[in-house]
Structure formats: structure tokens, C-alpha cells
Amino acid sequence: MSINRTIAPALHPIGKPDLVRPEKHVLKNGIPVYALKAGKQEVCKIDFVFNAGVWYQPKQLLASLTNAMLQEGTAKYTAAEIAELFDFHGAYLQCTADYHYATISVITLDKHIGKLLPVVEDMLKASVFPEKEFNNLLNRRKQRFMLEMEKVKILCQKKFSQVLFGEGHPYALGLKAEDFENVCLDDFVDFYNTHYHAQNCELHLAGQFTDKVIQQLDHHFGGDDWNGTPVETPQFHAQPQTNKRERVHKEGAIQSAIRLGKLLVDKQHPDYFGLQILVTILGGYFSSRLMLNIREDKGYTYGIGANFINLNREGYLLIATEVDKSYEEATLKEITFEIERLQNEPVPQDELERVRQYLTGEFLRDFDGAFALGQAFRNLHDFGLDYSFYDNYHQAILSITAEQLQQLAKQYLQTDSLYTVVAGQ
């Protein structure tokens, strides 16, 4: 039977997925383990999560470089031996630090977990911070930082974060060149000893694994040999500056980077779901208002987007693009035009239905596979939410009206409330 390719496939409503939920275990020393068993392949991801992100660092660089140094050598293994052992078993090791958490992630076949956990144990309990590797890492990071400071998009984002949150806030990108000279190896060793221990740790498993894994984790990480003092969470509050428009001068820049935005609500707020949908219409997908106008129609940029970004302590709107410097003011004018159009005109029904289809598709994508399900749980757990959050979001996508979206645009997207930062010539 031949297929008539001139006729598009029929659209069907996308149902709500039945989500697998984790089981909670507790190791002998009190470390919580959230184990989510899903998927068909015998592969497992283990995340060792610590409250050791930027929010907790007393100096710049401590969170990210301490985390990176965990791979550089332990009491039993050199950096090369750690890398070779993971490579030999076809496993993946990643160390990351974000605003709030430092994470050591291991992805491996279930049958190899027992061979890799002793290495991770030594990384977490007995990293030696070799001076040569530390100096090399610090120098590489400094060189990368200096290169990044030549890019208008980085300069613009840095200034925007400082304008929105206030200098000194952990969410403000405050790293300076002199910060690389103001740290020493002892600072990182102290941060490691203070933050990487059982009283500041939780574990997340996702994938296919046997019950033996919990026993192995208890054997390697459930003892009293790496206890520490619980880490207190520092308190910071966003302090946006009063001046709504800033410019960062970059001599010789061909393009101008543009950032607009403002603080919005958090995930517990009743308007959260509606704002997510509204921002998607404005600039959250390829057929959004900003893309169709400023890229497709005007040709000012290769890409422009609007995102409702959710951090643990703050949510904010970010509109971002880079344009030729000659189109800078015209682009800002069109952004304002599209925001005001959302305030003055209801979203047409066909556009709203298109966005519903897009968001429900993305909603399903967020739960596609064992690791995605594990991350979906983390996205709830880290914000103190339960699974009803996803039910409510799915319902909001299906039921929100054009009138509700217009009201949200009037309430939250007043153009005179937006902060604007431009970096360029």
C-alpha cells in the first residue's frame, strides 16, 4: 500500500504518562538512597550528590575546582588509573558542580558496579589533591576564563546576572581574573573536608540494577569512617539594581549581545504553569513569536529565545540573542512589540493548540528512559515538590485559555519592569 505523503498524519491527544517512582533506602550511617528501577538495558546511573555548589563556597572557584580535583588522584589511584579503570569497563564518570549541588555521576553496566565503587569511595574519602595537577587545572581554567571574557554573549550574561541578583549573590556570575590568584590548594582541601562527607550526601540510582547494589553501597559508603558536621545553608536574597538598562562596552565587537528579563515566581506559585506556557509562546520554541518575527521575518539574528529559568531559590525570565550591532535598537523594539502584542491581543486558537501539542510532546520527552525518569524525580526532590506537580502541569497545558495568558502577560511582562543589558561596540 502506497502512502500519500501530501496528507499530514492526523494529530492525536497525548496522554499523561504513568511515571515510575523511586524507592527510598537508608544506609547504616543515615545517607538516603533514592532508587528508581526502570528501563530494559542492564545499565545503571548512580549520582552522589552533595550540598557543595556555588551557594556554599566562601571564595570563588572552590565549588567547581574541588569537584574537578576528585578525578586527579587518591590515596590508591592516580588520575590515569582512575580514567583507565572506567574506560576498561566501558563506564562513564562525570564530576559537576552547579549553583547548589556537587555531583559525582557513574554510568555503568550493573555487573561492573562492584568493580567501580571502590574507586569512587577513594575519590570521596581519600582524594589527595596533588599540587601539580591542581596548578595545571587552575591555569587551564584561568586561560578559558580569559578567552570567555572576549565574547560579548558571556560579558552580557555576566552583567545581566549581577543586575538581576546583585553583586555578591551566588547566582550572579562574579568571577574575576584576580580570583585565580586569591586561592590556594589548602582552600580546596578545606572545602573538600567540610562538604564531602556522609552527613552532607544523598544518592540517586536510576536504571536496571539488582538489590545487591544497595548492599554494595552500604558496604562502601554506609560506615562511620567519613562522618562530618552537617553543612548549614547560607542565606542570600536577590537585590536587583534600580537602573533598568546597562551597557557593557567591548571594543572591536562586531555583534551585540542582548539580554532582557526580570525575577518571576517560583515553582510553588499558582501562576507558575501559566507563565511557562506564556514564555514558550513568546520565545520558547522554534515557531515562537520572537523567532518568527526577529529571525524569520526581519533576519536580524540566527536565533533568539525566551526562557523561564528556575533555580532553587529564584525564578526569572531571560530573553537572549546576538545581533549585528546595526540591528541592536531595532531588535529591542521588536522584542517590546511582541511582548505588548501578548498583552493587547488574545493568542489565536490555532497557535495555542500548536503550543499545546509542542509542550505535551516535550512533557513526554522529559520521561523518556530510565535516566530521564531519574532526573524528573531530582527536579521534584531538589525543589521540595511531589509528583502532583507533573499532573498539574499537564492539566494546565491542556486547559489554559487565551484570556488567562493575556492576563498573565499584563500582570508579569510589563515592559518597563524588564532589565535590559547590551554588550558590544
What this model shows, in words?
- The chain has about 425 residues and is an alpha+beta fold.
- The chain has two domains: about 25-220, Cytochrome Bc1 Complex, Chain A, domain 1 (2-Layer Sandwich), CATH 3.30.830.10; about 245-425, Metalloenzyme, LuxS/M16 peptidase-like (Cytochrome Bc1 Complex, Chain A, domain 1).
- The chain contains 14 helices and eleven strands.
- It has helices spanning about 60-70, 80-90, 115-125, 130-150, 150-165, 185-195, 210-220, 270-285, 290-295, 330-345, 350-365, 370-380, 390-400, 400-410; strands at about 25, 30-35, 45-50, 90-95, 100-110, 200-205, 245-250, 255-265, 305-310, 315-325, 420-425.
- The strands form two sheets. The chain has a six-stranded mixed beta sheet, with helices on both faces. The protein has a five-stranded mixed beta sheet with strand order 7-11-8-10-9, sandwiched between helices.
- The model has no long low-confidence stretch (mean pLDDT about 95).
- This is Putative Zn-dependent peptidase.
- It holds the Pfam family Peptidase_M16_C.
- It comes from Mangrovibacterium marinum.
- InterPro entries: Metalloenz_LuxS/M16 (IPR011249), MPP/UQCRC_Complex (IPR050361), Pept_M16_N (IPR011765), Peptidase_M16_C (IPR007863).
Largest sheet: 6 strands, mixed
Report Rg: 24 Å
> At the third CATH level, what is the topology name of the largest domain?
Cytochrome Bc1 Complex, Chain A, domain 1
Averaging pLDDT over every residue, what do you get?
96
Question: Helix count?
Answer: 14
CA-CA gap between termini = 61 Å
Structural class: alpha+beta
Write down the domain tally. 2
InterPro entries: Metalloenz_LuxS/M16, MPP/UQCRC_Complex, Pept_M16_N, Peptidase_M16_C
Protein name: Putative Zn-dependent peptidase
Domain Peptidase M16 N-terminal: 40-151
GO molecular function, one term: metal ion binding
